Amino acid sequence: MTKKPIVYVIEPEGPEEWYHPLEEITDVKFIYPDENFSKEDLRGTIDHSEGLIITSRCAISKEDFSFLKKLKIVAKCGAKPSNVDIEEATRRGVAVSYVPGGNNTSVAEYAVMLILASLRQFITHSQAIQNNVWRASNSFLGLELRDKIVGVIGYGAVGKEVVRKLYGFDCKVIVYDPFTKVEKNQCSYLSQVDDLPSLLKESDVISINCLLTKDTENLISDDEFNLMRKTAIIVNTSRGAIIDEVALIKALKEKTIAGAALDVYSKEPVDSQHPLNNIPNVIMTPHVAAWTVETLFREVSGAVNSTLACLKGETIPGLLNPDFLKFKV
Description:
Largest sheet: 7 strands, parallel
Radius of gyration: 22 Å
Shape: elongated
Order of helices and strands: EEHEHEHEHHEHEEHEHEHEEHH
Mean pLDDT: 93
Number of strands: 12
Helix content: 25-40%
Strand order of the largest sheet: 8-7-6-9-10-11-12
Structural class: alpha/beta
Strand content: 5-15%
Number of helices: 11
C-alpha cells in the first residue's frame, strides 16, 4: 500500500473536521504551537511534509525552505501571504497559494463598523452604564457619517467591498490606488484622486485597504499625518506595518488627528502594555476583522482544495507562483 503524503496544518482555523477532505489522499497532522514552540521545533517537525496549510501567523522564510526537502505546496488560508518567501519557494519548485476573496465581506463589514464606532464614540458609550455614567449636554456627542468624506486607500477586492457597503450612508468616497482605475460615472458618491496627499487632505475618515508591500510599508508616517485634518480618523484593517506606529502615537498625542481604529499592528500579538492602549479616541481590536465562521470556512476550504489539487497534479486554485513548475523536480 502506497504511503500517503503528509500535510501539516499549523495553527488550524476552525474545527479539524473542516480539513477532513484532505484525508482522501493525505495523512493530515495538526500543530497547535504554544509559546515555547520555537522555529527549530517547527522545522524539525515538518521537515518530511509535502504540504503545509498556514495562516498569517506562521512565517516560512528562505532558510525554512532549506529544511523542507519534500515540500510541494504552502497553502495560505486567506489573503496573499506576506509571511512566505515566494521567490525562494518558486526557486525550489514549491507552489504557494492563497484564497482570493475569502475574507472580503468580513473585513469590509468590520472596516465600516470601525468607522461608525469611531465617529459615534461607541466604545465610550458601551462602557458608560457599567461605570454609572449617563449622557450629559456636553458629553457623548458623536458624529454622523452622512456628508463626511471617506478616503479609501487601495481599491482591490476589500477596498471595492468597503466602497460598496458605504453606499446608503449618504457620505462621499474618494479612492487612491495607483494600479486600479475607477470607472467614470460608476456611482455618484465615488471619485478617485491621483495622489495620496490629495486623499489625506480631503478626508474626514481614512480606511486603509491596500496590500503590504515594500512600497506601502510605513506608507502613513509623520508627513502624511501632518497633511490630515485635525478631525480625521484613520482605520486600518489591512496590515499594521502600513502605518508607522511611532508616528501614529505622536499624531494622536499631539492631536494632529482626532482618532484611530486599528485591527492590525506592526508586531502581533499585542497586549494591554502596547503604547497605543489608553490613548483617547483609539479603538484596538485583536486582528479579528476576518474572524467569522463564514470567512474561516471559505479560507480553510480554499486552502484544502489548493493542497489537494497540487498533490493530484491538477490546476491549483489561487496559485501565486506559476513559475514554480519550471523548477519542480
